[in-house]
Amino acid sequence: IARPGDADNEAKLKEHKDLLKDKAENPLNGENKKALIFTAFADTASYLYKNLKEWADKELGVHSALVVGGTGKNKTTMPGLRADLTSIITSFSPVSKERDMIDDTETDEIDILIATDCISEGQNLQDCDFLVNYDIHWNPTRIIQRFGRIDRIGSRNERIQLVNFYPNLELDQF
After folding, report:
1. Residue 101 φ/ψ, nearest 5 degrees
2. Cβ within 8 Å of residue 43, ≥6 positions away
3. I need a surface site. Which of 40, 73, 76, 153 has the fewest CB within 10 A?
4. In whole angstroms, what is the distance from residue 18 CA to residue 41 CA?
5. Which residues pair with 158 in a beta bridge?
6. 2 neighbors 46 (Cβ within 8 angstroms)
7. 3-class secondary structure for 78-120?
8. pLDDT tens digits, residue range 78-135?
9. Once rounded to an integer, what is the mean pLDDT over residues 27-41?
10. 150 with 126: CB under 8 angstroms?
């Protein structure tokens, strides 16, 4: 679990920001700046959202969101958007979720979605072309399920990328 002030976590956060900045400045597909960040822990997801939301807005000019499943715990920087799961996911992946069938006036989108495994199954999020596993789940099937959110039939992306952050090897010493 990420803890503020922990040197390893702060270095990992900086590396993560560098990765997201590079993704935004050098999109894989056209102007696609979307990134889906998975973590196993709600506390880590909240830590990431807290430390990325203002930075992403100012540095990258993109909206961010947090999805952790529980009522009242989801958040977004997109003004006027309800913070429920459906609204956030629809604004993150409007093409695959057919947002234009529901609301053809909304044009703003969420480009960075930080989530727990509450959305690692059964969600079509193929508008996104970049997925980060901030932590590696102990179950390899879960990693495949996470990646399967963006690696789907019907994707308009020619390329997709998966990035894994591995734990510090010093953890094995405890």
Report:
1. -75, -25
2. 1, 2
3. 153
4. 22
5. none
6. no
7. CCCCCCCHHHHHHHHCCCCCCHHHHCCCCCCCEEEEEECHHHC
8. 999 999 999 999 999 998 887 888 776 667 899 999 999 888 888 889 999 999 999 8
9. 93
10. yes
Residue that has been written with the tokens 């508008």 in this structure: 127
Q: How far apart are CA 73 and CA 91, in angstroms?
A: 17
Rounded Cα distance, 146 and 122, in Å = 10
- Cα separation, 63 vs 55, in Å, equals 10
- CB distance 27 to 35 below 8 Å: no
User: pTM value?
Assistant: 0.88
The DSSP call for residue 174 is -
- The residue that leads in pLDDT, 9 or 62, is 62
Token digits of residue 63:
């909206």
Nearest to 2 by CA among 135, 131, 118, 116: 135
Distance CA 136, CA 144 (A): 11
Q: Tokens standing for 106?
A: 């909304």
- Give the pLDDT band (50/70/90) at residue 37: very high
